[in-house]
């Protein structure tokens, strides 16, 4: 990993500019921000912060979704938002087959520096706090980088499934977080 230290924290109103910069880099590169609870769809970051707060609780989660915890990966000096990760507290049928407990992304300008592996490692501690013993993480079969990140954190490939639209092959990995 890059020598820079990082920290995983819940996004707050004080991070609005960092979050906007992160979102904008993905939009400029015409990429979807995996693990972000649809950050790319929000012009107003305050509205997104409300969404993720509401979606973190079983009582207020949006219909059709499961409760989730969103964390952002910041440089230690908090000058750049490097990544984002979504931990789903439980699985529904779709997540069990295709989405998993965890989704994440790293901004393009920070990729290939070990940040995704470190972010996933840090998030596994958050999974333990949520009472999860094992977590499912999925990635497209052609996403070699993501598969490597998952394997680096103890991921064991269970199987591969074809998406409902028959367009992608999804690899399903399990990580025992209690080890």
Architecture overview:
30% of the residues lie in helices and 26% in strands. The relative contact order is 0.15. The chain has 179 residues and is an alpha+beta fold. The protein starts with 5 loop residues before the first strand and ends with a strand. It has a single domain (6-176), classed as Aminopeptidase. It has helices spanning 16-28, 45-54, 93-99, 115-129, 144-152, and strands spanning 6-9, 68-75, 81-88, 102-106, 134-140, 156-162, 169-176. It has a 4-stranded antiparallel beta sheet with strand order 1-2-3-4, with helices on both faces. A 3-stranded antiparallel beta sheet has the order 5-7-6, with helices on both faces. It is globular. The model has no long low-confidence stretch (mean pLDDT 93).
Blueprint (SSEs and pairs):
Layout: E1 6-9, H1 16-28, H2 45-54, E2 68-75, E3 81-88, H3 93-99, E4 102-106, H4 115-129, E5 134-140, H5 144-152, E6 156-162, E7 169-176
Antiparallel strand pairs: 1-2, 2-3, 3-4, 5-7, 6-7
In the CATH hierarchy, what is the superfamily?
Gcn5-related N-acetyltransferase (GNAT)
Q: Give the tally of structural domains.
A: 1
> Could you give the count of β-strands?
7
Order of helices and strands: EHHEEHEHEHEE
Computed CA radius of gyration, to the nearest angstrom: 15 Å
Quick one: CATH class? Alpha Beta
Oligomer category: single chain
Any idea what the CATH architecture is? 3-Layer(aba) Sandwich
CATH topology: Aminopeptidase
Total of helices: 5
Coarse shape: globular
Q: Calculate the mean pLDDT score and round it.
A: 93
**Class by alpha and beta content:** alpha+beta
Into which percent range does the helicity of residues fall?
A: 25-40%
Enumerate the spans where pLDDT stays under 50 for 5 or more consecutive residues. none
Beta-strand fraction estimate:
25-35%
**End-to-end span in angstroms?**
22 Å
User: Largest beta sheet: what is the strand line-up?
Assistant: 1-2-3-4
Report on the biggest sheet: 4 strands, antiparallel
């Amino acid at each position: 990993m890059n020598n820079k230290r990082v920290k995983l924290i819940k996004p707050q109103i004080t991070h609005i500019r960092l979050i906007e910069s992160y979102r904008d880099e993905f939009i400029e590169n015409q990429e979807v921000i995996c693990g972000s609870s649809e950050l790319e769809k929000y012009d107003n970051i305050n509205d997104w912060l409300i969404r993720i707060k509401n979606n973190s609780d079983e009582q207020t989660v949006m219909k059709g979704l499961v409760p989730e915890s969103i964390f952002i990966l910041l440089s230690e000096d908090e000058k750049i938002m490097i990544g984002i990760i979504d931990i789903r507290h439980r699985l529904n049928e779709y997540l069990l087959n295709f989405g998993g407990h965890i989704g994440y992304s790293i901004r393009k300008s920070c990729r290939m520096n070990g940040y995704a592996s470190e972010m996933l490692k840090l998030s596994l501690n958050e999974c333990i706090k949520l009472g999860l013993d094992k977590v499912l993480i999925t990635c497209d079969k052609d996403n070699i980088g993501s598969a490597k990140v998952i394997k680096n954190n103890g991921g064991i490939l269970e199987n591969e499934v074809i998406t409902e639209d028959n367009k992608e092959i999804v690899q399903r990995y399990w990580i025992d977080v209690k080890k």
